[in-house]
Amino acid sequence: MLLLSNSTSNSSPNSADSKDNPQPELPAAARGAPLLQQQQQQQQQQQQLAWNSLQQQQQQQQQQQQQQQQYEEQQQRHEQQYEERQQQEHCEQQQQRREQRQQQQQREQRQQQQQHEEQQEPPQDEQQQQRLEQAQQQQRREQQLRP
């Protein structure tokens, strides 16, 4: 039985020691260390979030600037294409007017030439009369040349 009581008393041998030698309390700085570490981690996380947010804003600004630049370049191309088309149409219209003027001048010249030729040519019956006289003169010459 004594053994049994010994074993029971020995079941918690450190219990007396822990009462006699209590664990020393951590100094205030050591107790605050986990709290300080937690605050630093939170601060780092907030800084990281702020940094990520700033980077996101910068990326968005860059995208917006790129989109704006692309839009402006596209507008410039459209305006340039429009101006080129306008200029081309203007040139084509000028070319058409020149061709029309040339055609008109040619028609007028042909009409003038035709009128001039008509004025130079004797009427048809006069031509026949002249040919007849020429033929008669030719016959007379031939007769004179014959012995």
UniProtKB/TrEMBL annotation:
- Regions of biased composition (Low complexity) lie at 1-15, 62-73, 121-138
Q: Give the span(s) annotated as Disordered.
A: 1-44, 62-147
| Bias (Basic and acidic residues) | 74-119
* Superkingdom assignment: Eukaryota
Q: What is this protein called?
A: Uncharacterized protein
Q: What is the lineage of its organism?
A: Eukaryota, Sar, Alveolata, Apicomplexa, Conoidasida
